[in-house]
Amino acid sequence: MQGSSPQTLDSAAARGLAPGAIGERLLGRLPVFQILTPLALLASLVLPAFSAAQSEGTDDAASFLGTAPAEGTAPAEGTAPAEGTAPAEGATAAGEGTATVGGEGTAAPGDGASAFLAGQEPDQTPVIAAPEQDPELELVEDPEQPYYLLGVRSHALFVPDFLIQAFGLQMFETVYGWTVGPEFTYRKNGFDIVTSVWWGSYPADTPSREDGDPASETEIIKSTLGLVWFTVDFIAGYDFEPWVALVYGGGFGFGVTTGEVTRTEAYPVGDGWTACDGPGQPRAQIAYCEESGGHYGPIPTKAKGIWPVYPMIHGTLGARFKPLRNLVITPEFGVGIPELFTLGLRVNYMF
Predict the structure, then answer these.
(1) pLDDT tens per residue across span 78-115
(2) CA dist 152 → 61, 192, 202, 281, 312 (Å)
(3) In which domain, by residue range, is 11 found?
């Protein structure tokens, strides 16, 4: 559309047309103005009402959620204050999405999450580690508390030949034996009462004759003797450390005989002695293998020196080791009758 020249406007004025009439005629000829004009009028009426409703709705929602800012509190970052409203004095904007206390970038004390979101290190109060417990304290026993031990005992025994010969038996060799059996201990305040049932073996195979007898009276003594012992021991001690102690004590009991002892006439062969085959056998050794009055078999249990039941009394000295709270190991040395010398070991579980 070509613009109106001054001459045209002047001619229109000459025809008595007012400026408002010129505008109406122009709008009437332009379709676009005919559409936009009503929309502009409608917007001028609706937009103020919509803005007022939106502001009222926001305040209601904040009141309902309980997050309405207190009077004079600055709005969160990115939210502009209402037109004409100044922030409260002393209020500072929080970091991104996080309220702060005590100045910019400082999180509320004790609030680790707020500190993390504010880009600070959370408050990490150092934890004091508990002192390490001395392992030896676990080995210390309560003197007022009873303890019970269950275990096994074993020892080797030996009877030197010179001691046997001192009792009138010539040529008798050293006797070696061994024992084994379970034991139960009641322990309180460092004092043990030990009960045990154990078996001992006392083998022998040696020539012998009594003092004053001629060589023709020499015999071979062979023993498969054994004893089932029932004993009780009383043991005290002195603790050097919770894990080691000196122990000492003694005990008594009795043993029931098992096995047998045999006596057989013997004759010399070289530097040793050999058992006869029987009375008068071999014939070449009849001077030694007597046909009458000789011994060729087991000694009766009622014979001299062979008893069905033997008493026992003995003393012990040793060391008690306790590598673990529930493990007790005791090597010991003993002297007694009828077992003269013993070297033993006791291993127990304490509960």
Answers:
(1) 444 445 454 444 444 444 444 444 444 444 544 555 65
(2) 84, 15, 20, 48, 19
(3) 1-88
What secondary structure does DSSP assign to 168-210, as a single string? TEETPPPEEEEEEEEEEEEEETTEEEEEEEEEEEEEEEEEEEE
Q: Among the three residues 88, 111, 133, which one is the final residue of a domain in this structure?
A: 88
Host H or E run for residue 351: none
Residue type, 224: T
Going by pLDDT thresholds of 50, 70 and 90, the confidence category of residue 163 is confident
Asked if residues 317 and 333 have their Cβ atoms less than 8 Å apart, the reply is: yes
Alpha helices in 78-160 (DSSP H): 112-117
Q: How confident is the model at residue 234 (pLDDT cuts 50, 70, 90)?
A: very high
Phi, psi of 32 (to 5 degrees): -60, -45
Predicted confidence (pLDDT) per residue in 235-268, tens digit: 999 999 999 999 999 999 999 999 989 999 999 9
Domain of 151: which CATH number?
A: 2.40.160.20
Q: How confident is the model at residue 187 (pLDDT cuts 50, 70, 90)?
A: very high
| Number of separate domains in the chain | 2
Q: Does residue 207 contact residue 220 with C-beta atoms inside 8 Å?
A: yes
In a domain, 80, yes or no: yes
Domain assignment of residue 37, yes or no: yes
User: Is 300 part of a structural domain of the chain?
Assistant: yes
Residue where one domain finishes, among candidates 88, 107, 138:
88
Distance in Å from the first CA to the final CA of the chain: 116
Hey, what are 328's tokens? 């007790």
Q: Are residues 195 and 315 in the same domain?
A: yes
Are the CB atoms for 185 and 149 separated by under 8 Å? Answer: yes
At residue 248, the pLDDT reads 98
Type of residue at 248: Y
Q: Give bridge partners of residue 317 from the DSSP assignment.
A: 248, 333
| pTM (2 d.p.) | 0.58
Q: How many residues does the chain have?
A: 351
Q: Specify whether 69 is located in the same domain as 205.
A: no
- The set of residues, in sequence order, having a beta carbon less than 8 Å from that of 298 and lying 6+ positions away, is 260, 261, 262
